[in-house]
Amino acid sequence: MDLAETKTMKIVLNGEAKDVPEGMNIEQLLSWLKIDPARVAVELNRVMARKSEWLSARIEAGAQVEVVWFVGGG
Question: Which among 36, 37, 56, 73 is least surrounded, fewest beta carbons within 10 Å?
Fold first, then answer.
């Protein structure tokens, strides 16, 4: 078996179709996308996901994920 071979699935990320590895939770998805989890809020299937739920919230094929960045200003 080729170790580089990874099964993927399609999700909708911020309104655009994207292929991502299967079997990830929100925290793993953010890491895979190289997104700093301290600077974002995540909505999974139109429901805001609390950071305490990120490890248990599995991303399934067809999931709708919205990642919103916090922006400072004044």
Answer: 73
